[in-house]
## 1
Amino acid sequence: MTLSVREPAVAGAFYPGTAAHLDRQLDQLMPSDAAPHPLLACVAPHAGYVYSGRVAGQLFGHLELPRRVVVMGPNHTGLGAPVAVAPDDAWATPLGPVPLDRELGELLLARHPDASRDPGAHRREHSIEVQLPFLLRRRPDVTVLPVCLKHLGYAGCERLGESLAVIADELGEPLGIVASSDMTHYRPDAEARDLDHQAIVQMLARDPAGLYETVHREGITMCGVIPATVALVTARLMGATSAHLSSYATSGDVSGDLSAVVGYAGICLVA
């Protein structure tokens, strides 16, 4: 039987395109002395590794991953369905293929009427793909369910989060939730940090409605606010009791250009 495999869209651009080079960069980005704790849900950045890789590495380096992980990312291309479940058997990476969790996909399609199988939303999208090397490094036997999200109303975020929480409860084994998001885009560094702080406060309070309202009211250009909101709903229903910021940075920390930066935060929610 021929397997359906999605080829990388941004390997060699957002992150190294060869296994040797990617392994070396992950060694540099991920702490070797971190004491890991179990992942319930997290928010991780998805820019090129040169800019956001250290924030992502600090986050994933201190997480103990379950075998099964849902990875939700925003839809930057505008293609495909609003709640797009990847239909592939695996996604290729320079470190080897990552199997897709077809059972999780079927459960989500059955539980959530707004979800649909859709390869188009994923074909050129980078927000989920860039998370996979970190997940593979932390857990080589990981299986993932990629879900690409367009903009949803808060009620839609809540329904999807509730569906994921029901699935997690039915599985009988741990399920991890990863929401892919960068923070403020192309504002002066000080302004970006102030805006991002407002959004981070809501995430640390584990308040999905507060995050959604704050981002929209303040015009915060957090591209993954929808995945992050869904993740907060799911985590709350899965029993999250606390959240912490693993690290924060802006692109200006790397480039030295503080006139128009992008912000990156690593947020971890634990039971």
Note: The radius of gyration is 17 Å.
## 2
Amino acid sequence: MQFDKILKFLKHISKNNNREWFEKNKPRYLEAKGLYEDFLEALHKELLKFDESLAGLNPRKQGFRIYRDVRFSKDKRPYKVNMGAGFSAHGKMEQEPGYYIHIEPGKSFVAGGLYMPNPENLSKVRQEIDYNANVFLKLLKAAKFKKYFNGLDDFDQVKTAPKGYPKDHPHIDLLKNKSFVVSHYFSDTQIKDKNFVKQVAAACNAIKPLNDFLKEAIS
């Protein structure tokens, strides 16, 4: 995998985030995109070893567009400065648990779980945690999981107890979450390592019990 070319392109577009530069350098973008899709194809083969629900996906189609939607954003830069992709049973993690891979100079990571579920699914996940807290806590404390993650990311939480749950609920910190996501970061050096695909797959393997719990909750 030639991640050095991908990272170099992303560094350059972050400094030249305009249509004129992009059009002049579109061959570089297409080369970087192709290399990233090569990586996704290799990763998909590894993911299928432990998650058969991904079998119907075309890995080269799982990447997200580089073009930003600026309609409702104060940030009018036209292009993303990362390459991201999502793998879940029916596509790109839309209202279902899955795995997300993000490549960005100095900020690359793999993540998984359920991102911003709709109110119905959020209610179902909270109820499942309430009913089966021991099962949920056990998967968060598993050695394979803790090798990569320190519990759920806390970027998306309500400030007080969610409706229907007392403030002194024994697992209120878990129930406050509006997203149920974990993430593990990789350095640029790790990305360029020949074993990077297997490292990402191993982190995803550690995520799978969380995804299974979440799938059961919203099914």
Note: Strands lie at 83-88, 98-103, 108-114, 180-186.
